[in-house]
């Protein structure tokens, strides 16, 4: 990957008058700002539909798009909506915070109106979309419709005949809800049109889009319902042992894959997932990459303290992926408990791993310190799971602060964010990615996620015009000084 720098900003965090960031004008304006700042990359979080707790890392589908990101104004320009269909509605009072409840109650009804206007306008394109995505689209659409039918209960609490996908019961529901199923499919079609238009614009400006996929899916997802054969049958779930993010470990609750089944079928589902993801994005970050070498298994009803590491598919999985996708542009999120086996696995795959500066100063020779980086790596000041750099600095202990200042010089709250961004920029890591909150110098109020906190995350939004001309010029200067501009190869 070429030397460059970019910004981490999820679609949801873009400014918008309609409750959440979208693929609309603000996204194009952000691309223009990235270009003006000589950035090469825009990284987003997973863009799959979210369920309970709104986490993009526990999506209700591994393949579908989040319909919340569809832009109403662009649909109105196409003639699929009228401004009066949505402009008067209250999508939340706080421009810096996503109101997921308002979106849940309002957005789908508006998108249904776009279906009414648009389904006959794009008959051939929509038919092609359904054909190209037939391996997942119908199951996902039916899952969404059935969730509403069963009052949004987890699918395991639906009628037994539906849970077990008895053919007669599925056929009855399919016939009963034919129109509703098509609405969901058409909504996915609308998202894809807007996404690829934005991607083409970004690529034309020299900006590559870095996507993100979680290793696991939600326990209440289209995949776990439609394809139970992909998952273990003993009720064990994913999590992590105690680590930097959570001293007691984390109980994620995601179902674990049946890797024996996956292996016996040539890892076909994973190959398909990677092919689709690398069609959507220029580069793909895979979350919790170490879970492919060994994953943390927590028994049914247990807690992280009851868990154990179990060997994963390792290089065999990525051999299958590389057969279908030679030299895939993948970033391996290799944070957490990393032992020699994981290091060997990463070396075998050859993908760049992550370096996080907020982790660098807790010990004297940390591999997160820039002088220890290999070129084949991606450096961050912090990730979506970290605090903002300003608030991190305000809360670190005296020994960490002492070593930090030994390393970068005497510092204060007024300049810590700029100094860590500069440290990332000057490093030998091929790619430097800075969270937008750090570019803006924001405090703990702008944190995106608390890993040990189940609810209330993923809400932060950037104010309109916050990425000002002054900030853009400052970032462009830092980028030029350290040889990370688009022109550098």
UniProtKB/TrEMBL annotation:
Protein name: 4-alpha-glucanotransferase
InterPro entries for this protein: GH, Glyco_hydro_77
Endpoints of the signal sequence: none
Source organism, top-level taxon: Bacteria
Family statement: Belongs to the disproportionating enzyme family.
Pfam families assigned to the protein according to its UniProt record, in alphabetical order: Glyco_hydro_77 (PF02446)
MF (Gene Ontology): 4-alpha-glucanotransferase activity
Species, as recorded: Christensenella tenuis
EC annotation from Swiss-Prot or TrEMBL: 2.4.1.25
Catalytic activity: Transfers a segment of a (1->4)-alpha-D-glucan to a new position in an acceptor, which may be glucose or a (1->4)-alpha-D-glucan
Enzyme's top EC category: transferase
UniProt KW keywords: Carbohydrate metabolism, Glycosyltransferase, Transferase
């Amino acid at each position: 990957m070429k030397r460059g720098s970019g910004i981490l900003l999820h679609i949801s965090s873009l400014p918008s008058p309609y409750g959440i960031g979208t693929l609309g004008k603000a996204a194009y304006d952000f691309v223009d700002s990235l270009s003006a700042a000589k950035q090469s990359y825009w990284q987003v979080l997973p863009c799959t539909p979210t369920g309970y707790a709104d986490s993009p890392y526990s999506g209700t589908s591994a393949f579908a798009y989040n319909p919340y990101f569809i832009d109403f104004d662009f649909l109105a320009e196409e003639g699929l909506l009228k401004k009066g269909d949505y402009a008067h509605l209250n999508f939340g009072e706080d421009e810096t915070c996503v109101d997921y409840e308002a979106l849940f109650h309002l957005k789908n009804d508006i998108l249904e109106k776009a279906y009414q206007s648009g389904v006959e306008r794009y008959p051939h394109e929509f038919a092609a979309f359904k054909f190209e995505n037939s391996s997942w689209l119908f199951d996902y659409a039916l899952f969404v419709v059935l969730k509403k039918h069963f009052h949004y209960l987890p699918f395991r609490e639906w009628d037994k005949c539906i849970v077990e996908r008895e053919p007669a019961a599925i056929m009855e529901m399919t016939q009963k809800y034919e129109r509703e199923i098509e609405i969901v499919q058409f909504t996915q079609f609308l998202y894809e049109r807007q996404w690829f238009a934005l991607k083409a614009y970004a690529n034309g400006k020299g900006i590559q889009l870095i996507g993100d996929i979680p290793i696991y899916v939600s326990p209440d997802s289209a995949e776990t319902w439609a394809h139970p054969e992909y998952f273990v049958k003993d009720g064990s779930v994913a999590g992590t042992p105690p680590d930097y993010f959570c001293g007691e470990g984390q109980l994620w609750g995601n179902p674990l894959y049946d890797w024996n089944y996956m292996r016996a079928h040539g890892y076909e589902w994973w190959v398909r997932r990677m092919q689709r993801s690398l069609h959507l994005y220029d580069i793909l970050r895979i979350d919790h990459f170490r879970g492919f070498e060994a994953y943390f298994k927590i028994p049914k009803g247990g807690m992280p303290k009851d868990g154990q590491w179990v060997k994963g598919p390792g290089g065999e999985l990525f051999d299958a992926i590389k057969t279908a996708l030679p030299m895939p542009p993948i970033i391996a999120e290799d944070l957490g408990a990393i032992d020699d086996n994981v290091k060997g696995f990463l070396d075998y795959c050859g993908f760049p791993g992550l370096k996080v500066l907020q982790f660098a100063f807790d010990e004297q020779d940390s591999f997160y310190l820039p002088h220890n980086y290999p070129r084949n790596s991606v450096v961050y000041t912090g990730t979506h799971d970290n605090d903002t750099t300003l608030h991190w600095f305000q809360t670190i202990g005296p020994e960490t602060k002492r070593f930090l200042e030994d390393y970068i010089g005497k510092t204060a709250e007024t300049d810590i964010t700029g100094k860590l961004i500069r440290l990332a920029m000057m490093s030998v890591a091929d790619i430097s990615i800075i969270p937008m909150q750090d570019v803006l110098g924001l405090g703990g109020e702008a944190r995106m996620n608390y890993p040990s906190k189940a609810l209330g995350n993923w809400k932060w939004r950037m104010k309109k015009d916050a990425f000002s001309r002054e900030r853009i010029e400052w970032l462009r200067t830092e980028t030029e000084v350290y040889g990370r501009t688009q022109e550098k190869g």
